[in-house]
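Side project, low priority. Logging it here so it doesn't get lost.
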Amino acid sequence: MHLRTWLTWIGSIAVVALSTRNPLYLALILMIVQIVSMRTATAAGMQAPTWWLRFGLIVVPISALFNAVSVHFGDTLLLTIPGNLPLISGIVTLEAFVYGALNGVLITVVIAVFAIFSIAIPAYQLVRSTPRSFQSMGITVGIALTFIPQTMRRLNEVREAQSVRGHRVRGVRDWLPLWLPLLIGGLEQSTQLSEAMVARGFGATHDQHSSVRTRALFAAGLVLVLSGWLIGFVVHTIGSISTLLMLAGAVLVLVGLWLSGRAVPHTIYNPQVFTVLDACCIVSAVAVAVLLVAPNPLIPSDSILYYPYPHLSAPQFDPIIGVLMLLWLMPIAVLRIPQRGDASRDSIQGK
C-alpha cells in the first residue's frame, strides 16, 4: 500500500483506540490488527510480529497493579493497605484494578499498530516522504529506525553461532560472549555505512544558502506567532485577534519551509503509485474514525466511553460499531501476495 494509506489507517485505529476503554472493542481491534499483520508479513515475505503479545502479557498486569495501589476509588473493596505510605496506603478496589488493566490493553493496541508500521513501511519510503527542507534529518531518522531490527537480527546470529560452539546462557557472566561480538559488529557496520554514504556524496555538496525572501518569511512568521501568543496571554478579551496572528504566522513559516525545500535537488526513483484501492482504504479509515469519535446520533456514546467507576458493570457492544470497525480490514484487499513465479521473474529481470 501507499505510505499515505498506511499512515491514515494507523492514525484512524490509534484515534479510536485512545477514545475508548471498552474491552470488547479493544479485543476486536487487536484481532483486526493481528489479521492485517499476518497479511502484511506474508506480502513482505516475513513472519508476523508476535512480540507485542509478550509485551501485552507484561504491561497489562503491571498497569493493573499500579493503578490498583495508586487509585483508591471504587465500590468493590478487595483489600486495604495499612499504614501511612504516600500513594499506596488505602483501599484497593476491583474497579481500579480493571481500569488499570484496560489501560494496559490500550497500550498494547497502540504498540501492535506500530508493529505493523515497522514491517509495512520500509525505511527508504520514510526518507522519501521527508520534506526536502529536512532531507538530512530524514535520512538520519531513517537510519535510526533500522537500528533496532538490525541489532536484534545480529543478536540472533551471534546467539546461534555461540550455541553451535557449545555456549549456554546460565547467568549474567554468560552474556559477555554475546554482547562483545554484537558491539564489535555494530561498530563495524556503522563504519561501513558512513564510508558508503561518503562514497555516494552525502554531505559533500555545498550548503544551499536560503534567500533573503525565505529568511524574511521565517522571521515574520515567528514574530506573528509570538505576538499572537503574547496578546492572547496578556489581553484575554481579544482572543480572536491573537488566534488570527498565530495562524498567519504559521502560514508564513510553512511557506518559508516550502520555498527552502524547492532549492534542494530532489529526484524520485520508482515512485509509489496511488491506486483506487488506496483511496478506498483511506476513505473507509477516515469514515470509521469520524463516525466513532465525532458526536453522532446513530452511535451511542455510552458504548464507546466505557468507565468502570464507581461500580463495575458489564461493557456494552453495539453491532453497528463492530461492523464499522471491520472496515479496517480493507488493507487485506489492497495488499498483494507474491506468487511463486515472482521470485524467478525478478531474478531474470535482475540479470
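Brief comment: The chain has two domains: 3-166+269-339, 212-262.
Revisit when time allows.
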